[in-house]
Design a protein that fits this description.
Layout (H helix, E strand, L loop, with lengths): L1 H24 L19 H11 L6 E4 L24 E3 L7 H13 L6 E6 L20 H6 L1 H9 L8 H10 L4 H9 L31 H15 L2 E6 L4 H9 L2 H9 L4 E3 L21 H12 L2 H11 L10 E3 L4 H17 L1
Parallel strand pairs: 1-2, 1-3, 3-4
Antiparallel strand pairs: 5-6
Helix pairs in contact: 3-8, 10-13, 11-12
Length: 357
């Protein structure tokens, strides 16, 4: 009997130590929802942020949804009150590759879980037109909160099976040492973004970078149905939904158009109105307004917010600043069923003229 107990201990103790190490290191922060450690490994923000809002149901009543690009819509440019005068407290649900199918699931989960939302902004881009919801447990960065809901045990076990990322241990201890002085962590829990997403300076100008890769739009991702479902859900819940397109750097924009991005925009207009910021304008032809071929800088995000939420004078100034000699579509034009054909025809003329210059 003693030998059996000894053997069990020799087996169980190392397993417990290893499991403890996995939980402590927790590169994707699924075991540290209320105390994230912001290392160089991308955390599972879909899970963390959804769980955080469900644990703090009355803290926020307005959210931003979309890919990592929506992180660059600054808090200071967002509306502070609803149309009927109630205070708005915003949280940015941004995460890499976020898409309308997952955005719908997020709003459904939050409202079903007792979070009262008054306003939702969803940013769509060329990724949206082909990226569907992540299903299953294969990618620890993108596994959704809804996958966790189906089986919490399987969800957490999938992370315990991962090899610990030992190299981030020094970063974890640095995070702990910062304690209450960790400004990045404070920002994560107050608005959901990184400090880099709050800096208003522009970058250096340079050659147009290689485009961000894109896949063809064929409707297979279910994106239009997801946007339609989100619009319907928001109507049922009394939530004001604002849909907006990302400004897309010209090289990436051209690739998107070759993959039928304009057809995607037309289809979106059939199910909801949206503000259009992609096209040829001051920002999309200037590399200094982008971090890379994908992400516009917060300064551009602030100009977008001026168009959407500023008074008439502020809006007109922002629109004028964005206009170039080749612009045929107004920066932040509101697209709907009635004007979609005209707008998209002008977008085609814009890009053709730009390529002929």
């Amino acid at each position: 009997m003693k030998k059996l107990i000894t053997r069990l201990c020799l087996f169980i103790i190392p397993v417990l130590i290893y499991a403890g190490a996995c939980i402590f290191i927790d590169a994707y922060n699924v075991f540290h929802v209320n105390n994230v450690r912001l290392t160089d490994v991308t955390p599972n923000q879909n899970f963390i942020k959804t769980k955080y809002l469900l644990q703090n149901k009355s803290k926020f009543n307005a959210i931003l949804l979309g890919s990592s690009r929506v992180a660059n819509l600054p808090r200071e440019g967002l509306p502070t009150e609803t149309d009927d005068g109630r205070e708005l407290n915003w949280y940015n649900m941004t995460y890499a590759m976020g898409n309308p199918a997952e955005n719908y699931d997020t709003v459904k989960t939050l409202t079903d879980g007792g979070v009262k939302l008054d306003e939702v902004i969803m940013l769509i881009d060329e990724i949206s037109m082909w990226k569907g919801a992540t299903i299953g447990l294969d990618n620890p960065i993108f596994t959704t909160y809804q996958t966790y809901e189906k089986s919490p045990l399987r969800f957490y076990y999938s992370y315990l099976k991962l090899k610990p990322v030992w190299r981030i241990i020094p970063q974890i201890f640095t995070e702990y040492k910062l304690g209450d002085n960790n400004e990045n962590k404070k920002l994560f829990y107050s608005y959901g973004v990184d400090i880099e997403n709050t800096k208003m300076e522009i970058g250096g100008s340079g050659d147009m970078p290689e485009p961000e890769s894109s896949l063809i739009y064929d409707g297979g991702s279910g994106v239009i149905e997801a946007i339609q479902n989100l619009s319907k859900l928001c109507d049922e819940q009394g939530i004001k939904l604002i849909v907006v397109t990302s400004p897309i750097l010209e090289s990436t924009y051209e690739m998107a158009i070759s993959n039928d991005y304009l057809d995607f925009l037309y289809d979106v207009a059939q199910v909801t109105d949206f503000y259009l910021f992609s096209g040829i304008n001051t920002y999309t032809v200037g590399t200094e307004y982008y971090f890379d071929a994908s992400h516009f800088r917060p300064l551009v995000g602030l100009e977008m917010e001026k168009v959407m939420f500023g008074d008439e004078e502020i809006k007109n100034i922002a629109v004028k600043k964005a206009k170039t000699d080749m612009s045929l579509v107004e920066f932040g034009c509101l697209v709907n069923k009635e004007n979609a054909v005209e707008v998209i025809d002008n977008l085609e003329q814009e890009i053709n003229a730009y390529n002929r210059k």
